[in-house]
């Protein structure tokens, strides 16, 4: 596969003649994944194209309020033909999921658009820009470059993508263009206040139960510079957790004044442990620590999968992380 950085104008040119397009993002989709897929899908549909929006794990309940999410397809997929396929916000091809990867393979052209620096460029066309705070921002620029429709529904998805992946425009990756794009959307009539309320002020009671458990059980080491929590299957069953319930909870750990890095260890159904790590110090690269365990991502936000049991995985990871933390001044 080519690893040449393809311009957004060239990608727009590749999409323009295509009539049947499949768009996918990573498993366990977050706001940037879903928002980018649907933002692009709705724009292309407005041009009269047939677009298949694919998400292996479906729509998280916390994002189901967004326009036309009911059109998102999940496995098993029907046997449809595709001219062009796109993988968005997905650092490795496998992260779209087994069934979705097979569906994308039906297309003679695969386009990879991402902002994870570890992305190797697995598409025939690749636009991987690790300086961008969200893939939603890249998709907005793609639509602008191609002169593609940007409707209110498109803006709702792309604003959600950008807002959620920038921590409501707080993270250091947020740049001047991010705010310009948000301003352009507001000037075009987007109701950002409504979106903010639905995204950040409308939670099910079970999320607060999880938050209570995390605050009771959180653990500190390295003189309070590392905060972590072990999220067990027992608690998931007790609270009856739904996809999207834990989105952003790690930020509560990270906001503690002494904390430099926060980690959540999540016990998955297959026995693996999902590691989510965050840093608020540019000198501490959590993607490098996650890389020791086969993971990766961004310098300040990364993840990995480890073998259980959860206590052993946590101790192994935190030992490696503490080694890096203690190297800081």
Write structural notes for this entry:
The longest helix is centred in the first third of the chain and has 16 residues, at 31-46. With 329 residues, the chain is α/β, with parallel strands linked by helices. The strands form two sheets. The protein has a six-stranded mixed beta sheet. Helix content is 38%, strand content 17%. It folds into two domains: 8-200, Alpha-Beta Complex (inorganic pyrophosphatase (n-terminal core)); 205-325, Diaminopimelate Epimerase, Chain A, domain 1 (Roll). Helix 2 (31-46) links the parallel strand 1 (20-25) and strand 2. It has twelve helices and eleven strands.
Keywords:
alpha/beta; inorganic pyrophosphatase (n-terminal core); Diaminopimelate Epimerase, Chain A, domain 1; 6-stranded mixed beta sheet; 5-stranded parallel beta sheet; 17% strand
């Amino acid at each position: 596969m080519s690893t040449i950085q393809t311009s957004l104008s060239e990608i727009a040119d590749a999409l323009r003649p295509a009539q049947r397009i499949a768009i996918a993002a990573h498993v366990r989709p977050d706001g940037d994944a879903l928002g980018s897929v649907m933002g692009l899908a709705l724009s292309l549909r407005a041009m009269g194209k047939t677009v298949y929006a694919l998400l292996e794990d479906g729509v998280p309940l916390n994002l189901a309020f967004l326009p036309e999410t009911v059109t998102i397809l999940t496995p098993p997929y029907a046997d449809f033909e595709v001219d062009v396929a796109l993988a968005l916000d997905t650092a490795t091809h496998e992260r779209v999921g087994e069934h979705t990867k097979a569906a994308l393979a039906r297309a003679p052209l695969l386009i990879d658009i991402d902002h994870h620096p570890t992305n190797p460029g697995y598409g025939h066309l690749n636009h991987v820009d690790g300086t961008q705070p969200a893939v939603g921002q890249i998709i907005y620029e793609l639509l602008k470059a191609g002169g593609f429709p940007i409707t209110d529904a498109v803006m709702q998805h792309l604003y959600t993508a950008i807002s959620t992946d920038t921590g409501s425009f707080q993270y250091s990756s947020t740049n001047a263009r991010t705010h310009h794009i948000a301003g352009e959307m507001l000037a075009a009539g987007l109701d950002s206040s409504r979106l903010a309320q639905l995204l950040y002020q409308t939670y099910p009671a079970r999320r607060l139960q999880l938050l209570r458990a995390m605050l009771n059980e959180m653990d500190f080491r390295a003189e309070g510079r590392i905060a972590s929590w072990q999220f067990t299957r027992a608690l998931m069953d007790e609270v009856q957790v739904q996809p999207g319930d834990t989105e952003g909870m790690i930020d509560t750990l990270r906001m503690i004044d002494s904390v430099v890095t926060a980690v959540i260890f999540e016990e998955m159904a297959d026995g693996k442990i999902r590691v989510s790590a965050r840093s608020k110090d540019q000198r501490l690269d959590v993607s490098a620590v996650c890389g020791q365990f086969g993971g990766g991502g961004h310098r300040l936000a990364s993840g990995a999968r480890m073998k259980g049991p959860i206590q052993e995985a946590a101790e192994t990871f935190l030992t490696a992380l503490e080694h890096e933390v203690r190297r800081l001044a």
